[in-house]
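Cross-check.
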Amino acid sequence: MRSTKKRATIYDVAAEAGVSITTVSRYMNDPSRVGEKTGKKIAEAVEELDYIRQGNTGSRQGRRVGRIGVLTPFFPAPSFVERLRGIIAPLKEQNYEVVIYTIENPEQLDEYLNSVPFTRRIDGLILMSVNLSPEQHRTLQASELPVVMVESDDENYSRVLADDYAGGRMAAQLFIKKDYLPCLFMGDKNSGYSYSRHPSEMRQKGFCDALEEQGYKMSGDGMLYADTTVEDARQVFSDYLSMNEAPRAVFAMCDLQAIGIFRAAVDRGIAVPQQTAIIGFDDIETADWMGLSTISQHLSDSGRVAAGLLLDFLSGKSETIQRINLQVSMIERSTT
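Predicted model, tokenized:
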């Protein structure tokens, strides 16, 4: 009769030995890098659990396949493309190919993480704006892949973050300074996907908090929600203008929405910024040439830093989990 016993994973070995997964991985790669007492515990756990190394264990240089995976929910959104440019450059210098895996639902994320062929085809993984469930985290840890996250504050992994809350505050502070009130905020109406991180809420909170500190409280009427696309934002803002006076200013949670707002304003003969000022968020390439004021989260830099962290893991230079916070900045152009 075929055994149904589940094969032990590195996660199980770490729990049995009472050490971290990183320590087990270090021992597997080079036992001399682990203390004698700790190494003995790990060896005993391996024996006790009858642990069999997966295809991605052993010397990293010996198993290298020359590919890095990037998991992302929203490719090819402009902000993701610009971040990807930052990721590709340093990896290419080290002769790594980048393979992009797009996620459209939680089941697809599960399928990737549970696929042994998937994990064996890559040397490391960068997750862009991906939220992991506890079970998905356990599965990913068991795969033994070096992992870096971008825009997901998961303490189990090294990650690169932008301060969305501070960006929202910056937008509000500019509106207050220039007396651009009353104002609106446009957020993402699709912020409920469990497998993806959505920054709209923190940008909105920073924006509203800064306004309230100056005695201006945003009402429900001041909140608009649209898809993060030019056309949907254009339609939502156009519908708003059909029933209301033009606001003095609008802060959109992303540049694509801000561009849609700008187009709706122009369609109705509203002068920007003389009648309605507009600020976006991201500083994508299009924002520059159309003169859109925006909050820059330095997309290319975040990708470059994430790739650097992963390369350090792969080369053995560092196995320390790091949290890198990149500062956002106001880029004021002609729409304000």
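The longest strand covers residues 67-72. The first helix runs from residue 10 to 17. Passed to J.P. for a second look.
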